[in-house]
Amino acid sequence: MRALLKVKIAIGMAFLFIINGCAPAISKEVRDQVDPAATFKAVFHDPDSYKGKTVLWGGKIIHTRNTKDTTWIELLQQPLARGDRPIRESASEGRFLIRHEGFLDPAVYGRGREITLVGEVRGRETRSLDEVEYSYPVVADKQLVLWGPEQEPTFHFGLGFGAVFSR
User: Fold this and answer.
1) Chunked mean pLDDT (size 10), the chain, 167 residues
2) Whole-model pTM?
3) Radius of gyration over alpha carbons of the chain, in Å?
4) Is-contact 115 144, C-beta < 8 A?
5) Is residue 160 one of the residues assigned to a domain?
6) Whole domain around residue 130: which residue ranges?
7) Where residue 115 sits, what CATH number does that domain have?
């Protein structure tokens, strides 16, 4: 009877960890402001038509630069998975800029890190990208999520007599 209780508790705890691992990173209050019509592709082609609209986007940091009162983060857009994390090695539809009021440390918000944000479209900004002029959609952030390194899930299972199976 006691062993059955332990199994039920273990299954319940595993279920809670699984549910928690799939929870969205963006708060419900902020998510409710997102305009589903303001997809990256639509805004990229005509940012001025979406000024003031709230978007939920993500991507990989290319460059972070601080000016007097603002941090600019250039991202390579990536589609989002369940839980709002950018999907690695997925096709991108372009680049965009995050405009953050205040200082964000480029050592923390460094090249290759992944970000998910909810923000307000502010239009476009044209900047040099190598030898071409590139038109970036600009988004002022409302909520930023900086993701840590993704780790392989580890599962340990013990039978109660000293044997442990691990992946």
Assistant:
1) 52 45 76 96 96 98 97 97 91 96 97 97 94 96 91 51 53
2) 0.75
3) 21
4) yes
5) no
6) 26-149
7) 2.40.50.140
